[in-house]
Amino acid sequence: MSRTLVLVRHGQSDWNLKNLFTGWKDPDLTEKGVEEAMDAGRRLKAAGLTFDIAFTSELSRAQRTLTLALDELGQPDLETIRHVALNERDYGDLSGLNKDDARAKWGEEQVHIWRRSYDVPPPGGESLKDTGARVWPYYIHDILPKVMNDGTVLVAAHGNSLRAMVMALDGLTGEEIVGQEIATGVPIVYRLNADTSVAEKTVLEG
User: Fold this and answer.
1) Distance of CA 47 to the CA centre of its chain
2) Does 102 reside within a domain?
3) Is 98 domain-assigned?
4) Which of these is catalytic: 10, 36, 126, 158?
5) What CATH number is associated with residue 171?
6) Using CA of residue 164, residue 125, residue 14, residue 77, what is the dihedral sign?
7) Mean residue pLDDT across the chain
8) Where does substrate bind (predicted)?
9) Lowest-confidence region among 1-5, 95-99, 143-147
10) How many structural domains does the chain have?
């Protein structure tokens, strides 16, 4: 069965390691992140997957994750589309701040609301709902048609842009999706029915 969509969150970035809000800032992968990206490719290869097209964001940590994974898969020249719609959630005024420093400035409860609520954005930034508002149309109009045309499609992106896609695919509410963790470098494989609903979901964990 084709109609396969695979989601991969980028490997650990330098700012993930330093506990900073990243958003649209553009740090590179750590050594661990590089290994996670390569491991994602190895897991996809072991699962017998090859791809017709890939999508990623405009941010280098997702792009490099995709490149490393495709090298492991033996598909380094796969057609790839980069689009800002798949960028991470914009954390606005929190971007670049240490999460502990943000808690000291605004209070633990307020920072928790910004991080884990569905529709409350940080100052100058996006809520998860706002992120979804740019991800969902791109998914419906650009990614999903490639999948439904008997395609096998790889998306390498970010925790929150992928959360928005998982929310749509799994039929989750805003309250449910904020509690969903998407691990770095762990592929999530969806096989879709002819009506675009999910026939099967597999997480390729080690």
Assistant:
1) 20
2) no
3) no
4) 10
5) 3.40.50.1240
6) positive
7) 96
8) 9-16, 22-23, 61, 88-91, 99, 115-116, 159-160
9) 1-5
10) 1
Q: What would the DSSP string read from start to end of 57-71? A: -SSHHHHHHHHHHHH
The tens digit of pLDDT for each residue in 137-173 reads 999 999 999 999 999 999 999 999 999 999 999 999 9
Binding site membership: which residues?
A: 9-16, 22-23, 61, 88-91, 99, 115-116, 159-160
Kindly name the residue from 31, 79, 88, 112 that is annotated as catalytic: 88
Residue 124 lies in a domain: no
Annotated binding site for substrate: 9-16, 22-23, 61, 88-91, 99, 115-116, 159-160
pLDDT tops 90 at residue 1: no
DSSP bridge partners of 157: 9
**C-alpha span between 31 and 154 (Å, rounded):** 23
Catalytic annotation present for 83: no
User: How many contiguous H segments (helices) and E segments (strands) does the chain have?
Assistant: 9, 6
Question: Is residue 31 assigned to a domain?
Answer: yes
The residue range of the domain holding 28 is 4-90+131-203
Give dist(CA 107, CA 171) in Å, integer: 33
Which residues, other chains included, contact 54 with Cβ-Cβ below 8 Å and sequence gap of 6+? 66, 70, 78, 79, 80, 81, 153, 154, 155, 156
Residue written as token pair 């995709």: 66
Q: Which residue in this structure is represented by tokens 């057609």?
A: 79
